[in-house]
Amino acid sequence: MKLVVISGRSGSGKTTALHVLEDIGYYCVDNLPVTLLQHLMKELTHSNPPVTMAAIGIDARNTSRQLLKLPNVLRELISDGVDSQVIYLDADDETLIKRFSETRRKHPISSDTKTLREAIERERDMLNPVASSASLIIDTSTLTLHQLRDLIKVRVGEAADTMAVLVESFGFKNGIPKDADVVFDVRCLPNPHWITHLRAKTGLEQEVQDFLAGHDTVGEMIADIVAYLDKWLPRFAANNRSYMTVAIGCTGGQHRSVYITEVLLQHLRQRFSNVQARHREL
Questions:
Q1: Are 77 and 127 in contact (CB under 8 A)?
Q2: 200 burial type by CB count under 10 A (0-12 exposed, 13-18 middle, 19+ buried)
Q3: Is the pTM of this model over 0.85?
Q4: CATH number for the 2-157 domain, one of 3.40.50.2000, 3.40.50.300, 1.10.8.60, 3.40.50.620?
């Protein structure tokens, strides 16, 4: 049995994630009380035919006491042979407030005495035990609905037995990605932004790639990053890591980090079966 627990704050995209997994063959249940999780797994395992993939939505509609029990419940399931993992979706407070305002939905723990912002902050505290158990945290603040669907399908739904690797470019001026496991800072490299005819282009375009490839320091940086990843990613995989996000950052996330991400993507695809790239700022 493969079990994926989908959790996160309200408005972060949990329902979308469950729909994606349901479409590709997962048995999905939303808003399950934590105390019923083991019983459900037993029922699904012994059904005829047995269910081999399940995705369960668990969020703040559980009580705080129930949520505190989740890490222990997952450990017991793993000891019983259930391949269990938690995928935690989140977004920044302002994005969640905007999403609720646009849809006019009522927050599940808001009340006459609690504002929407207070409910969102309270929900974060309630879900801390779940977030701490997550093998993958996805920040949906900048993702469109279609991007989130694609990300869930590739990183979770199509994950093979080997570790899934995401190489992500970003701009430091917009903050480090929340889901980053390893961060490389490439702001010391020559910046195409200061070349007038390259400023509006991106690291996906040939002129920018030729400019960066023509500098020895860029090649040296790439070689050092490749050496680190070649040595340590297999060790993370051997330690049963399901997901790994390698973040490459420059100032704006448009030129240097994008180019290096693309180079790393091609290299890592020779070593791992599930490697994807994402350019956050593009």
A1: no
A2: exposed
A3: no
A4: 3.40.50.300
